[in-house]
Amino acid sequence: MTSYDRTILITGGAGFIGSHAVRHFVNRYPTYRIVNMDALTYAGNLENLKDIETAPNYIFEKADICDEERTAELFAGYAFDAVLHFAAESHVDRSIQDPLAFVRTNVLGTTVLLNACRNAWDKERKDTLFYHVSTDEVYGSLGREGFFTEHTPYDPRSPYSASKASSDHFVMAYHHTYGLPAIISNCSNNYGSHHFPEKLIPLMINNIRNNKPLPVYGRGENIRDWLWVEDHVRAIDLIFHKGRKGEKYNIGGLNEWKNIDLVRLLCRIMDKKLNRPEGTSAKLISYVPDRPGHDLRYAIDATKLKNELGWTPSLNFEEGLEKTVDWYLNNEDWVNQVTSGSYQQYYEQQYLKR
Ligand code: NAD
Ligand code: DAU
After folding, report:
1. Is the CB of residue 228 less than 8 Å from the CB of residue 191?
2. 225-244 residues labelled b (16+ CB within 10 A) or e (exposed)
3. pTM of the prediction?
4. Where are the domains of the chain?
């Protein structure tokens, strides 16, 4: 029987960022046993992990992080040494439709995992870690100037960000109260392959491909700081191995874009890829009522991560967007699969009934 150096629980590994992280850890660390625990909600998809599903150091467990009994069984069965926690309800617009689902998974589910770690791990051990993957949205909304640092006070303004902020507080409360070894990272907007088409970039790519209206909220003036998903995963790897316990690290792309400029850029890229005359896709842009409480601007100051661990983003945005568009155009089956069924009801509710 193979013996492994460490057994790591990755939660939410069938989702967008989680699947990139599972692939990275499985391939890069063959001496780690990776257990992916995912409830396979609408956002979870095992197709995302087809290429590594038979790797000897990879195991999938379909389970809900809110299920205390099942979580305890998994901890007893696998004796996890560390947890890398991605599982969450992650879409702001859905949190506006149904806040309680976000409280359940993001707050209750995270606390169930924290309890399981506290029960399983001897306090004397130095090799355990609860790594919590969080978001820059916990800091609230910036004006035209300034950046979020690790010291920016929390000011969440959507049900999603309030639930993530609450989960961050529980993580640090367990660290301070029970001595649980924990680290949090707060990242800006990710983009790349396998991104569920409810989020801005994949939704726009899909609608451009299908000649459907491109719903830009408000006047398209809101600003996001975009990061290539694989750069996020590289940062997580570094922090997981070299970060200081009890600390928070900001991760960001140094790459701010107004939504409308980003949508126009995507239209230009797609016109080229689809051999349409320049300007064709931009005609699909349609301004729609704004997201309630829409945060104006996010921008991350990632100096701490750069100075302490030497991380910087690797990929230029236009290059990353081209790669992303190519992936979506080459993976129509994936898109068709995830946009069938309940996606249609969500789309109707979000865009056609407002
Ligand atoms: P996602 O919605 O694509 O994936 C979430 C995954 O969690 C899915 O596989 C889903 O099946 C699983 N899941 C949901 N509820 C669960 C439950 N109760 N039990 C077990 N599994 C469950 O999300 P994502 O965009 O990959 O985000 C992953 C994490 O990163 C989240 O915690 C999110 O807050 C954070 N984050 C995301 C971004 C971003 O730009 N997407 C940026 C910063 C931080
Ligand atoms: O900042 C990190 C966060 O980024 C993550 O924590 C979240 O999980 C992730 O979903 C993302 O949140 P945003 O709300 O910033 O991402 P979204 O892709 O939903 O929207 C990006 C911007 O585009 C935002 O200003 C709203 C706007 N938008 C979005 C959609 C879906 C539109 O104008 N039209 C749309 O149809």
Report:
1. yes
2. bbbbbbbbbbbbbbbbeebe
3. 0.98
4. 6-191+226-251
For residue 128, report the distance from its CA to the centre of ligand 1, in Å.
22
* DSSP structure string for 225-272: EEEEHHHHHHHHHHHHHHSPTT-EEEE--S-EEEHHHHHHHHHHHHHH
* Residue tagged active-site, from 58, 160, 249, 298: 160
pLDDT in tens, the chain (354 residues): 678 999 999 999 999 999 999 999 999 999 999 999 999 999 999 999 999 999 999 999 999 999 999 999 999 999 999 999 999 999 999 999 999 999 999 999 999 999 999 999 999 999 999 999 999 999 999 999 999 999 999 999 999 999 999 999 999 999 999 999 999 999 999 999 999 999 999 999 999 999 999 999 999 999 999 999 999 999 999 999 999 999 999 999 899 999 999 999 999 999 999 999 999 999 999 999 999 999 999 999 999 999 999 999 999 999 999 999 999 999 999 999 999 889 999 999 999 876
Q: Which residues surround ligand 1 with Cβ inside 6 Å?
A: 11-12, 14-18, 38-41, 43-44, 64-66, 86-88, 90, 105, 109, 133, 135, 164, 187, 189-190, 196
What is the distance of C-alpha 26 from the center of its chain? 18
237 counts as catalytic: no
Contact criterion met (CB below 8 Å) for 245 and 130:
no
CATH 3.30.70.20 correct for 6-191+226-251: no
Catalytic annotation, pick one of 38, 64, 81, 137: 137
Measured in angstroms, how far is the CA atom of residue 12 from the centroid of ligand 1? 6
317 alpha carbon to ligand 2 midpoint, in Å? 17
